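In this section we walk through a basic example: taking a raw amino acid sequence and producing a predicted 3D structure, encoded as discrete structure tokens. The instruction is simple. Fold the sequence below.
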Amino acid sequence: MPLTTTDPELATILALARALAEDAGSIQRDRYETKLSIETKSAAIDLVTEVDRACEELIVKGIQAARPEDAILAEEGYGDDDDRARFRWIIDPLDGTTNFAHGFPRFCVSIGVEREGERVVAVVYDPLLEERFEAVRGEGAWLRDRRLTVTSETDFGRALVATGFAYDVHRSEDDNLASFHNVVKSARGIRRDGSAALDLCYVAAARLDAYWELKLHPWDVAAGFLIVEEAGGRITDFRGGPADREGREVASSNGPLHAALLAQLEPGAP
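The resulting token sequence is shown next.
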């Protein structure tokens, strides 16, 4: 059976998030490997396309039409955030824009929803594989009709781990390279796929054992955090404390490997 919830408010929000994610995903599928207008934002490697903007506009307008009292934080700025609102939607309309712009098939739509500051609904949709990852607080995490559970791996030497690099990697000394070196020397394998939302979903789906990254944003992690948590995984900052909502430090694992992952993120780790 697919994910359901007995909470009528959350059921309505989940249905809307599913529909909007799939509608935005259809735009991405149609425009994949077509000619794009590509611009840059914070850095030369921080890209945005007309597809990002079209997807965000579709999602934001859909939320505003159905739920005008809700706050919206969206990556490209179409939303109207308001910390007084009971519900807050956090949207990455196209997570993996650089991949999309290059025709590399790793990107998705990410929609997370908070109720009074607590993550309660998440939908991440991969339009090429037509995989929809989703979670409702207390109801588990799901891919289609399969309930997700993280791996039970306990040996970091057998772990498959993912990471990414911030857009300021060309100019910042805080660049994740030392941690990358540590992990690549100690884990079975490392992947750098370019979509934080999908990496988190893959931890939840037992396709990855762990994932870490720094200098992310709320829209990168709002959905993925809940999906990992509901699949039984663990998410912290690099010292093992609570990961902040901004995504500045994200260490995610199946749980048994978490201490080993954090040890590799320390400067000078073997």
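Looking at the output, two observations stand out. Residues 8-31 form the longest helix (24 residues). The radius of gyration is 18 Å. In the next section we compare this with other chains.
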